[in-house]
Amino acid sequence: MLSERADDWQKEWTMAMVIRTKDEIPDDAYRTMVLTLMDKQAGREVATAEVFGQCVLHAPTVEDKIRITRFQAEELKHFQLIGRLMRDLGVDMDAYVQNRQKAGARFTGDEADMQIRDWIDATMFNFVIDRAATFQLGEYTKGSYLPLADANRIILKEEEGHKSFGEVCLEEMCRDPATRAEIQRRFAKWFVASMRIFGRAGTPGNAYCLRVGLKTRDSGDVAAAYLDSIRPVMAACGLRFPARAELPLDLPPQVDLDVPVGVVS
Ligand SMILES: [Fe+2]
Ligand SMILES: [Fe+2]
After folding, report:
1. Which of 71, 81, 179, 231 is surrounded by the most beta carbons within 10 Å?
2. In this predicted model, what pLDDT tens digit does every residue of 36-65 receive, in sequence order?
3. Confidence of residue 112 (pLDDT cuts 50, 70, 90)
4. Global pTM?
């Protein structure tokens, strides 16, 4: 009975927990986890900017090149926003940027996975990877560390534009059956990389983040929600998710890989 009451108290305390500034960080465990989350995000922001650099080469029109260049600058701004918070906690951000290996491989651990060979790759990077990374940030806007939540609210506004562009390009490309078939053929590779962004479900790190309010959902639930968000676009494009058995990953059980049969315009 007593321990149940203690559990309830713990739950209420967690729900009420808001850390307004770095000086309110309660202990080392919280500080380490905030730094881990920001480190992952900052690495992806700068890596996204670098991959967009490759995308510019393949953009078919000058308007597309201008748009991608703008996205690239925005990603670097996102990096600066998070970098400032990391610097406040003692991280040497100049060394962080200079460490190319560290920054460049933040999506799957292997920079070669993010090679952009043509506009199809560029569109898939934008539609799948940039979007998955952004989806993850929605969690942080509700998190208990207010400086990170506030920075991500600003970031998410700009990411809306990146998301719409990826979607429009993909839909346009999929009108051509041969291009659609090629996109489908390449889809599994990008899909696997996107699932790695969400990380493994049900880990002690996830449980800790939920307990101290740094996340509101387990990684498995976030990955499932992300797929729900792109499912209508997949249907409209006439694309399908890869089958579970084809994937070299342990997908959380709540992830739904069905796509209703779409109408391709
Ligand atoms: Fe970003
Ligand atoms: Fe982006």
Report:
1. 71
2. 999 999 999 999 999 999 999 999 999 999
3. confident
4. 0.89
Count the residues in the chain.
265
d(CA 124, CA 170): 7
Cα–Cα separations (whole angstroms), residue 23 to 51, 92, 152, 212: 36, 19, 20, 16
Neighbours of ion ligand 2 (CB under 5 A): 130, 159, 162
> Would you kindly state where each structural domain of the chain is located, as residue ranges?
10-246
CATH superfamily, region 10-246: Ferritin, core subunit, four-helix bundle (1.20.1260.10)
pLDDT tens-digit profile of 64-78? Answer: 999 999 999 999 999
Measured on CA atoms in the order 65, 66, 69, 70, is the torsion positive or negative?
A: negative
- Rounded CA-CA distance 46/106 in Å is 9
